[in-house]
Amino acid sequence: MRYVTHMVEISEVDDPRVDDFRDLSRADRRPDRPGGRGLVIAEGVVVVERLLASPYPVRALFGVRRRIEALAGATAALDVPAYVASADVMAQVVGFHLNRGVLAVADRAPVIPPAELIERSRRLVVLEGIGDHENLGALFRNAAALGVDGVLLGAGCSDPLYRRSVRVSMGHVLRVPFAHLESWPEDLKLLRDNGFRLAALTPRADAKSLRDAALDEGRVAVLLGSEGPGLTEEAITAADLAVRIPMAGGVDSLNVATAGAIAFNAMSGA
């Protein structure tokens, strides 16, 4: 069995070689935040494998021996260190007990310009104000599962490469391309200029039923809004149509990731 080139035993909690993994409950921050390093962090064998297969340049792995060994096939050609420690030492370094037993860190890849992502796509999701990292990760996982070509992040969205988002997405945020719309909602014009129809998802009663919206026809972008108030009036006005998911009486809305999955399925025509 082959392993990564540099298998390194770590026995001391303060070993500087594992500083990238240290105190993740506080140090896991975006590069534009105080103390932020902006590393991409993957947890667990499955998610680490997806990081290794992604465009993000891997810096190192850190885990208990059996989890590192479980990654032998994926790491055979890597030239990065794999740090091996006991579960106790690892927990003290990371700052919490990690049931998944292995982590990997990577640098960020270059950001895709939104025009490039729009040009090469047929089905897109546009997010506004998605601040919850778990919802964001779930949206990326649903997008990957249901054939969405990419994600455009509008105003008020959290960082999709935050550790919790990567974990909840099961690593799919590492393979679904995304780009940032800097001017909101003015940049929605980029979609319309490329022949996209914009469908704003909203529970309001006067919106068109999802059953009648024909989201599987042509180039379509679905707009999803924040977990509380939903899309702003500006975003809905900028769209070509407002679309609602028919629901039973007494239920006013769905979790945004659930609503997204239903809309993504409608876009696929399945």
Q: How would you characterize the overall build of this protein?
A:
This protein is an alpha/beta fold and 270 residues long. It has helices spanning 24-27, 45-52, 65-70, 72-75, 87-94, 114-119, 133-145, 163-168, 188-193, 233-238, 256-268, and strands at residues 6-9, 40-43, 58-63, 81-84, 102-106, 123-127, 150-153, 178-180, 196-201, 208-209, 219-224, 241-244. The strands form 2 sheets. A 7-stranded parallel β-sheet has the order 8-7-6-11-9-12-10. Helix 8 (163-168) links the parallel strand 7 and strand 8. This is tRNA G18 (Ribose-2'-O)-methylase SpoU. Pfam families: SpoU_methylase. One of its GO terms (biological process) is methylation.
Helix content: 25-40%
Shape estimate: elongated
Report the end-to-end length measured between terminal Cα atoms: 42 Å
Compute the number of helices.
11
Mean pLDDT, to the nearest integer, reads 90
Oligomerization state: single chain
Work out the radius of gyration.
21 Å
Q: How many domain modules?
A: 2
Backbone structural class: alpha/beta
Would you identify the CATH H-level superfamily of the largest domain?
SPOUT methyltransferase, trefoil knot domain
CATH class category label of the largest domain: Alpha Beta
Order of helices and strands: EHEHEHHEHEHEHEHEHEEEHEH
Domain tRNA/rRNA methyltransferase SpoU type: 124-264
Keywords: Methyltransferase, Transferase
InterPro entries: Alpha/beta_knot_MTases (IPR029028), Ribosomal_eL30-like_sf (IPR029064), rRNA_Methyltransferase (IPR051259), SpoU_MeTrfase (IPR001537), tRNA_m1G_MTases_N (IPR029026)
Protein name: tRNA G18 (Ribose-2'-O)-methylase SpoU
